[in-house]
Design a protein that fits this description.
mainly alpha, Tetracycline Repressor, domain 2, 2 domains, 67% helix, globular, disordered N terminus
Length: 250
Amino acid sequence: MQSMTGKEAAGGGLRERKKRATRAALTEAAVRLAAEHGADHVTVEAISAAAGVSVRTFFNYFTSRDDAFVVIDAYAAERIRRAVLDAPAGLAPLDALRDALADELAEAERQHELWRLHAAVLRTSPHLLVRHLVAHMADETAIAEVIGRRLAHDAASGAATASDAASVPSPVPEPRADSPSAPAPPRDDADEPERRRALELYPRLLAAVAGAAVRVSVEHWSLRQDERPFAEVFREVFDLLAAGLPAPAR
């Protein structure tokens, strides 16, 4: 079953690490069984047995069978948001988001086979793909909100420096600290338009462009794995974004 990352193993107590490992094992079992038999033919009982836990334990982590197929790493989005907020002051938002995503994608590269199987399951299960896209859009909005908070904080800090203020209370609220053992349930879809309406253009665009950059990086590298390391492809994509996407020299 899926092994825990170094970051996950180092964080939290033994009980929380075991809970994260159990959820990861259930997700991996679900994806592998779906890749072999088709998602519609996989039962909660089969997933639980493959992960070595009871059906009751399965429902401690997921409200339905389909939930186990939608997202491989339930904690990645929160780690990305936290990393963007914690990035050094003065670092451009694009660079802060790039670094946060790079840390997460290093693990995705290590588990490339599982991520490939997950993509195949989604392609052959339209209802799961829709749920995955909805979850992705919610994560994108949450990242845009964090970028907006970081920009507001930078603006307030700059104003304080200009006026020689001794200190300024940060307008950046702490992101919700989801319990490692129980990721927050998906936000109500009805709230999504309101949340997007509250966002400025730049945070929304940056979050969306970064998502596209990740997808292009992964697809490009997957087709040319023998040519370059993934990290090199990923950095080049973000370098092109930072440069304003200049046309390549002919």
